[in-house]
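Sync notes, pocket subgroup
Present: LS, DG
LS reminded everyone that the earlier model was apo-only. Rerun requested with D-malate included. Inputs:
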Amino acid sequence: MLRLLSRAAFGAFVFAAAAIPAAAQDFPKRNITMVVPFAAGGPTDIVARIVGEHMSKTLGQPVIVENVVGAGGTTGSVRAARAQNDGYAIIMGHMGTHAAAVSLYPNLAYKPDVDFEPIGMAAGTPILIVTRKDIPAKDLKEFVVWAKANNDKVNMAHAGVGSVSFTSCLLLNSILQTKPTQIPFNGTGPALNALVGSQVDYMCDQVVNLVPHVTGGTIKALAVGTAERNPALPDVPTSKEAGLAAFQVTAWNALFAPKGTPKPVVDKLADALDKALDDPAVRKRLLDLGSDIPGKTGRGPQALSTLVKSEIERWAPVLKGTTIN
Ligand code: MLT
């Protein structure tokens, strides 16, 4: 009986293996493009290049970052959603492009929870309120007074409607009841340059973009929107300590493939991401920049699918009424 079973089991295994498209079995055979829907040098780009570099080693093929900017990251996201679903085009999306954008764009040309195969979360990225270094406010309380008193003159940088920076500061401005002039950039890399140059007054950005500038004193950090202080910036108060407990925001960056990418291919990409997040050197780089690395249960396609759905729901009431077209 055991012999019959083992023969049947082997037959089933052979049949199942033969069912996997040949292209998926020997994936990858060439470069993989990782779309970053924001300008080089910003937080999404930073996370993408850190994990992408290690994924190349596991996959045995180069992972090439391609920055496709515009419309708060939705231009690159549309490009990725419509790419060939063979695993050779993936995207580093995030809480903005793959959750908040659904509420900000009624005619969004993709559904984050339908038009993509989730691969896995790469990094959680707490949000900081940061200002130009010469702002006449030494802390968040003084900034709030100044921002309200100068409401018609204050300007705020962001990376476009649909970005994390736009969404996070939308929450801040609604708490403060202020309406600053909004200055869009193709990413918070260029926005940060403007802030360092005192060409804009403030922004809400992901910690991974900010650590060297905060520690170097080229910008001011007023608060971090998490319950605990960030280990990479222990001197920056939480929003609660700074007197604005309602400002609780953390973002996340995650990898997606186009809908219909074969499961064996998605699994290889998810495995390469998992190995990157277990690598000591990758972990050190991400942690030194203040990001949170997902534990094993927070990784992989199923966890990301659940996160995207819950984040779309979470941001909908917060963003209700702020649609732009
Ligand atoms: C954003 O959503 O603000 C982007 O992450 C900024 C960026 O990565 O450039």
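DG: Residues 103 and 319 are 6 Å apart (CA to CA).
LS: The domain at 18-123+252-319 is CATH 3.40.190.150 (D-Maltodextrin-Binding Protein; domain 2).
Action: DG to write up.
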